[in-house]
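Protein: Xylose ABC transporter, periplasmic xylose-binding protein XylF
Species: Salinispira pacifica
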Amino acid sequence: MLFGSCSEGGDSQRSHGRLIKIGFSLDSVVVERWERDREEFITHARSLGAEVNYRFAVADARKQVEDINELLDDGVDALVVVPNDAQALQGVLKRAANMDVPVISYDRLILDSPVSAYVSFDNVEVGRLMAEGMIKHAGFDSRVLIINGGAKDNNSRLLRRGIAEVLSPYINRGMIRIAGEITPDDWYTSLIEDDLEEYIREEKLDGIIAANDLFADSAIQILARYRQAGDVVVVGQDADLIACQRLVEGIQHRTIYKPIDRLARQAAETAFNLAVGEKLHSSRTVDNGYARIPAVIVEPVAVEKDNLEETVIADGFHTREEVYRNRE
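Structure follows.
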């Protein structure tokens, strides 16, 4: 746990009978997982006795600044932010600091701004697990295309670092070759599809490392048009339902499961605790360019066809009926 509570009794005592208002600013809900984050966060915050006021920035950094200003104007006691642009929030978050409103950077690290806590997954480890999956399934002497995440997202850099830690020694020895990299400005499939199709059409690829399962889905659809689906190794992350179904079908080879319910609950507890004035107790910190901030980091899990049952299905992330729908 990130916090140690100095108070006793129920949450109503901790808030002195006052309704706690938490603002939740999300970048977008284009990716499947963000709806799950939102729903779990709201459910847990309400169980603690808090009200959640949320906004979607539709992947627009300027709109996110407007959203956060609105939440501050509404009198929220704490802010939880999934940044669209990690470096675009300095002004509005300084306003939050001046108003003594704690800010939790959720999933993606906000850079160069005052932040009270960071709640996320180990994104470097996500990259490592993806690269290890590529080696396992594509082997050596393979040509690999890397589809990076949105350029404005600090997680994309962490993910790429993890991929490089695993692949670089083999690249340096000529055992793996990088056919190319695609780096979109944001997490939209429309920003990668033209380049992706050109690589698939022109290059003989053995594998594609996709920054998330949405990008992996685009890759598989294009591979299918060129009758290469299942022959080219594809790895992604987020354990989206379609990715898990494709693991069963053998046309995606690995996804990375990040226990979103656990992360969302931790973020809700962190926001509530800070809102009622409790202090942070954390053995781990991260540097966001402004200060070292307390962090709680949840470990990701590699998922393949042979461990679906004990991971995403056992956790109730997806049901067995959903995952095996196309095979039963």
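Remarks: Residues 1-10 have pLDDT under 50 and may be disordered.
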